[in-house]
Each structure stands twice: as C-alpha cells, then as structure tokens.
Amino acid sequence: MFHIEEELKKLPAKPGVYLMHDAQDVIIYVGKAVSLRNRVRQYFRPSHSEGLKKDQMVRQIERFEYIITDSELEALILECNLIKEHRPKYNTMLRDDKTYPYIRVTLGEEFPRVLFSRQMKKDKSRYFGPYTSAGAVKDTIDLLQKLYKLRTCSRVLPKDIGKERPCLNYHIKQCLGPCQGYVDCKAYRQQIDGAISFLNGNYDSVLKELEEQMNRCSQEMEFEKAIEYRELIGSIQTIAQKQKITNSDGEDKDIIAAAFDDRDAVVQVFFVRDGRLIGRDHFHVTVANEDTRTSILAAFVKQFYAGTPLIPREIMLQEEIEEAEVIARWLTAKRGQRVYLRVPKKGTKEKLVELAAKNASLVLNQDKEKIKREEGRTIGALKEIAGLLQMDHLVRIEAFDISNTNGFETVGSMIVYEKGKPHRSDYRKFKLRTVTGPDDYGSMYEVLTRRFLHGMQEKKSLQEKQMDAEYGSFTRFPDLIMMDGGKGQVNVALKVLAELKLSIPVCGMVKDDHHRTRGLYYQNEEIPIETSSEGFKLITRIQDEAHRFAIEYHRSLRSKEQVHSVLDDIPGIGPARRKALMKEFLSLEEIQAAGVEQLAALPAMNEKAAQAVYDFFHAASALEA
C-alpha cells in the first residue's frame, strides 16, 4: 500500500516535477515545484484549496511520484514534456508543436535569415533551442538583426536583387542591404557566423558592450534608451540559461546511472525521444558485496536491452562498462543501425547523467521499502499466480472482456499486464463484425480469433522481411490468457487456440453470487485463492481493468442522448415503439419469438410496424441458417 502521509515526509526540498496517479494508476496531473516538499504537501492540507477542479483531482489521488531537477527551469521543461506525453486529465493542455520556440538560421539560403520557429524541420537550416520564453526569443532575434545588420525580408536572393527598393531597415542602418547588392555573400556570411557564435553561447563581449551602452545612456540621462538596453540584457540572460532537460539534436537516447550499497542497487533510466526527456523508470537490483558500479551497469544493460524492442541510437552511461565494444556490436545488430555507448565527461550530457544518478540515489535512500512493497504487489503477485497454476514462467498476461447494450455495438477489449503492471500501449479494442445481438460466447470467439490470427500473420510478415518479430504490436503472445468468466469462456478460448494450433494456458476469473472474484478456473478445476494475498489482488485489478476498458470503449460508441439498440435499425421503429417493446418483453430473444399479432397488440404498435419487426428478426435468422 502507498501511505500518502508517510511518503509526504520523504519529499526532498528540491526543485522537480511531481506526477499524481489515480486508483487505476493513470497519471491525472503533472506539476512542477521549486520545492517538492512544500508544493506537494500543500495539496493534502485540509485548510488549503486549489480551486474546484484541483480539489476534485486531489480526492482521486492514490499515489504520487516525483523527479528531482537542478533548477526550476529544468522542472518547467520536464513538466511540459511529461504533460505532452501523458496528457493528464487535470492539466491545462498545451497545443501540439507550440510548447517551445526555436531560433532558426536559414543556412540553406545564400543570404540567410534569423527567424522565430515553432517547429524543428529536417531542412538545411540550423536550429537553436528550444527555449522557454517566446518573448525572450523574439527580443534576441531583434537584437541579432540590429547587432549584425541581418535582413528580415522574404525576398528570394540573389534572384530578386535590385527588383525593389530597399526596405526601412536599410535606411535606419539595421540591414546591410543584400537585396540591392550592397554586400556580397562572403561578407554577409561573416555576419551570420557572428550571430551563430552568439547563439552558441559566446555572448560575453556583446553583453559587455550592452552594459557599457546602458551605463552611458544612464549617465547622459537617456533613461528610456537605458531601459531598452537593460531589457535586452535580461532577454539574453534568459536565453543563456543552460537547459539540460531538452537537447536540440533530436536524437533518441537513454541515460543510465546507478546508486548502490552493500545489499541493494537502483538503476535509473531517463528516456529521451526526439530530443525530449519524456519519462524515466528505475529498477531495483540485488547485489553482492563484491559488485561494483561498473559491473552493475554492465549487467543491467545486457538484461534490460535483451528484453526491450526499442533500442536508442545512443546510450549514455555513468561509467565505462566491461565488454563495452561487444555489447555495442550486439545492440547494433538488434537495432539494425549503429548504437553508441558513451560516458560523457563534460557539458549538458554529463549533467543529464548526474541528474539520473541523483534520482537513483534518492530512490535507493528513501524508497527501499516502497520498492519492495511494489515488487510484492507485482512480481510477487505473479509468482503467487504462477505457483497456483504450476507455471514455470509468467511475465505477460492478456485478459479479454465483452460489452454491449441490448445487442447494440458489441465491443471487445484486450488488456495486457507485464511484470504485474498494466502495459497500456498494448491494449486493443475490437468492434464486432460477425456477431449480432447479446452473444458473449460468439463475440469472444471473434475477438480471440482476430487477435491471434492477426498476430500470426504479422509475425509471418515480419519474418519474411527479416525483421525482429518483437517489433510487431500483435506478435507478442501472452504467457497466460485470463477470461472474465468461468468454464464457458475458458472453453471458447481453448477452442480458438486449438483451431489456430497455439498452446497458451487459459484460466477463467470465477465470480461468486455477489459478482466478486472468488477463484480461478484452470484445467477443469476451480482453484480457490486467499483473498488477502497479493496474487488475488492482482487478479482483481486485471478483471476490473478489462471491464473498465471495454465499458469505456463502448460508451464512446454510444450516443450520449439515447441508448441505442438493434431495434433502432428496424424501419418504422422509433423511440416510442422501442420503449413499448422493451417494456413488454424481457429480452431480444422474446421479441424474436413473438408473432405478428402479439407484436401489433402492443401500445404504439400497428400491424405494419409489427410485420417490420417480425421480418427483421426472421430474415436475420434465415441468413444465419
């Protein structure tokens, strides 16, 4: 169990980002803080109010986690990345591609420009950023144009040289006039090189000159000009802040660092995708007295990347590891492209590794008990289930459920748990194609057939292309299939697997008369489970999640104003007649069995409508026969 009061005591007084989770372990809010201890504690003070929306969010919090950073600026950028990645329910969402501004130098042009950009494209331009302040970016671009007298027009040069008169910037001596041929390409490029040098951080000389100008204007009592220089200096200083959380190279990389003591180790991995830190995970490792950080990192890299299909181009490590060259060749073969193992010694990359190491140390020192509890809740629960079913290997579980309302829009859901945790990227939804009416067995047969047939076809296609089958979304088959029901649902699954010649264990999650899970149905036997065990709790979570996911999909397909059923598909049957039919008959089967005269005798019905209902169901029956 996650004890909020206990975890609040462990919060560090450092800047960082915090993530709030609900009962389904969904991230519902991401925030940043100058002091994690002060900010996160505020949410749980009875006297403190965050407003109606936030107060509603607080009531749903089941647990929280956090990532420490070195500055509030880093926390801000990381917060934006995580909000964009997870799209939490209670965050104010930012528009796509408008989170950060860039400075773009159009080196593909003969006379380049310095522009403001919201996107980083794969062109001949050079991009600087992203930055946190759009105003500061615009001020800096304006300053560069004034300092280096760069053009701002969109004329195509040298094609348009001399075709129009020079613009105002030339007349006020803020442009060299390349549109008139007043400066050659070589001289203009020197100015661009100066601007690029400035953007690379070589701005001390410019700052010094601006400070001198500001002081001179102040002494001469030209205070308005002095304020302008002061604001430009402030803008440059804002731009100059180091941003370790986001890189402009757009590469995929993993940053790995470890912290350890005589018994335990925590390895922290930061995931950078398209140049953005989108998340992180930590892994608990049991160590021996003779283990070193180097050996821990080497063992982790081999085990971790043996089980994950996504291998980045660059893996940044805290220390040089043993067999680095061999491991790099192995990873290159798995990825199909060159993979680099690097130990950064300076600059932004070294700071990122230091940040990962700090977070690893924090987890090791403060969260040992939490990690062990979590392992019992996930890995330990899996071991319990595997023991009950006498299975040697259990990592991936798939569970299926069916949802419908009066036979309308029957849908199926597939949820996936790996290592005892939801693997939501592998969840799948199925809209039924061949089954009409409330036929749960027929619906489940279709869902399972489509799921495994698709996986077999996808795997075959990838093998023909000589690609690793793990890259396919359906190719990873489960170690265990869990059905939301007893013997009947299990037999449906076994029938599908037999037809497809697949051998996968199947068990049913059996419920009692009060619709509560009581045990597992496996190999024609019902196996009771201790209700206080972690294995039982995991089964219940899987069952609830499968049901929730199916219901959620079904609701998205239903109209909010009206509950639809197959009766609405019958010509001449509107809301009043549908209501009369549903009031008189308990099920669609009873409506189907009724004669025309019986149907016509109902309120709001007539002989024509009754005949339409009769023909609808009996035409469908004739087709099935």
Give me the secondary-structure topology:
Layout: H1 4-9, E1 16-21, E2 27-33, H2 36-43, H3 52-60, E3 63-68, H4 72-86, E4 102-105, E5 114-117, E6 126-128, H5 134-148, H6 168-171, H7 185-199, H8 204-219, H9 223-240, E7 253-260, E8 264-273, E9 276-286, H10 293-306, E10 314-317, H11 324-335, E11 340-342, H12 347-366, H13 368-389, E12 396-405, E13 408-418, E14 421-422, E15 428-431, H14 440-464, E16 480-483, H15 487-499, E17 506-511, E18 517-522, E19 525-528, H16 534-557, H17 575-584, H18 588-593, H19 596-600, H20 607-624
Parallel strand pairs: 7-10, 10-11, 12-16, 16-17
Antiparallel strand pairs: 1-2, 1-3, 4-5, 4-6, 7-8, 8-9, 12-13, 13-14, 13-15, 17-18, 18-19
Helix pairs in contact: 5-9, 8-9, 13-16, 14-15
Q: Mind telling me the C-alpha Rg? A: 32 Å
Helix content: 40-55%
Total beta strand runs: 19
> Helical stretch count?
20
Mean pLDDT over all positions:
82
What would CATH call the homologous superfamily of the largest domain?
Answer: UvrC, RNAse H endonuclease domain
Query: What is the CATH T-level topology of the largest domain?
Result: Nucleotidyltransferase, domain 5
The second-level CATH architecture of the largest domain is: 2-Layer Sandwich
Low-confidence runs (pLDDT<50, min 5 residues)? 94-98, 559-563, 620-625
Q: Please, how many domains?
A: 5
